[in-house]
Amino acid sequence: MTVILDEELPDQQEYTASCQRETPTTPKPRQDLLLACQDRAHTAMACARPCSPVTPNESRATVPSVQSATGQRSPRRRRSLSGYRCLPKMLPVASRVLRSASPKPPARVLLAARTFVSEASFDIKKCALHRLEEGPPVQAVLTRDEGLKYYKNMQTVRRMELKADQLYKQKIIRGFCHLYDGQEACCVGIEAAINPSDHVITAYRAHGFTYGRGLSVREILAELTGRKGGCAKGKGGSMHMYAKNFYGGNGIVGAQVPLGAGVALACKYSGKDEVCFTLYGDGAANQGQVFETYNMAALWKLPCIFVCENNRYGMGTSVERAAASTDYYKRGDYIPGIRVDGMDILCVREAAKFAAAHCRSGKGPILMELQTYRYHGHSMSDPGISYRSRQEVQEVRSKSDPIMLHKERMVNSKLASVEELKEIDIEVRKEVEDAAQFATSDPEPPLEELGCHIYSKHPPFDVRGVNQWIKYKSVS
Ligand SMILES: Cc1ncc(C[n+]2csc(CCOP(=O)(O)OP(=O)(O)O)c2C)c(N)n1
Ligand SMILES: [Mg+2]
Predict the structure, then answer these.
(1) Ligand 1 geometric centre to CA of 397 (Å)
(2) What's the count of helices (H) and strands (E) in the chain, helices before strands?
(3) Of 376, 310, 318, 305, whose CA–CA distance to 343 is shortest?
(4) Which residue intervals make up region (Disordered) (predicted)?
(5) pTM of this prediction?
(6) Which of 36, 147, 250, 415 is the most exposed place for a label (fewest CB within 10 A)?
(7) Ligand 1 pocket by C-beta < 6 Å: which residues?
(8) Distance CA 470, CA 474 (A)
(9) Number of structural domains in the chain
(10) What is the pLDDT of residues 290-347, one digit of tens each?
């Protein structure tokens, strides 16, 4: 299997980035010479990439266009000269390549074949089962479009979290902040399996699900920086983000579990074919209220999917030190359960589909344990290496990173090319940069609004102890 590292081909990245910059003052060199150089440089780079399938005998005129994740033709790849504003910058690179490459007639030059399969089937890890005869399938079909979408979504969550880390260290984000990097396959995989009309509730590690439920990076980062363009108007922060059919973002460990069962009760009561994914951590799994909720959900056959995101630690305590049984998928006792590889997006997707179908068929609740890992410490105040070693984190990153695994799958099965995924990376970085720009320049919510939005339907009112805000007028 070919291993693709996250930061592979920095030269290609630099090249593409430089293509986006204008150099209006540099005189334009001869166009015919530039095109020739450009082709050789492209060719050399394509040949150097270990995972690009290559086809002989393709000349410049027959190079197929690269499609972006949205299926649109990438303007940077167009053959017109307007797409090559960077050519003056490319000249030194191209001439180095020309000097080193043996002169070959264009017809014999190798170029990356940009033909992809439209779907591929993969063997996935079998889930361990509890009180179930049959579990999720052990094969999953992935279409090219789905694969590109999952890649982009996971990469967006990863980059957004890394940006949040940076803004926190710059003291632009303050207060609580729990990052989700490492766990991306869980939120993107579940979202891939359910309908927008289904429901999700989670704990405070909520940024990934907020994005998955349809909010933009801009709204999430602006919420983290406490600005009025944030998804809770800058008043909620990291732990209190909401979207349509997404109920947060809850700071009290385990408290969202009974709320999730309540949402599932509403689904059943209103007779809609909807389900509620109720997420909690391995730490929360030891709480009494979780077991009370299991009881009611099973008794009333609620369409509730209990999802325990087992990331191996509750704050600084490992699961072995905290739980008498770490078989979280069995801890609903009379509730059927599945243990799922939470680092593999296809496993998560298939398991979530299976669990949702179980609930929709009226069989009552089901429990899903997702075995995952968080790269960051518990929160921004935890460096995350006093109770676990750097090597442990490194090992998970290098062997089972969800984005890397998905990328390998896509490339090795010819669902996508390395270059194309790189383009998505660039798009994502830009989106996150723009969002950060917004999140640091948008004004804070006006002071006179601080008493609003405490209840959804009531006008602002004096809150005992905080009504001093009312008399201030905002100047921003
Ligand atoms: C009722 C309650 N007790 C304690 C805390 C402090 N606390 C915050 S997070 C946490 C650990 C939870 O770990 P886990 O459920 O595994 O979630 P993870 O952070 O790993 O996502 C604790 C004890 C709290 N917020 N609420
Ligand atoms: Mg945990």
Answers:
(1) 24
(2) 14, 12
(3) 310
(4) 1-30, 50-81
(5) 0.77
(6) 36
(7) 205, 251-253, 281-284, 311, 313-315, 378
(8) 10
(9) 2
(10) 999 999 999 999 999 999 999 999 999 999 999 999 999 999 999 999 999 999 999 9
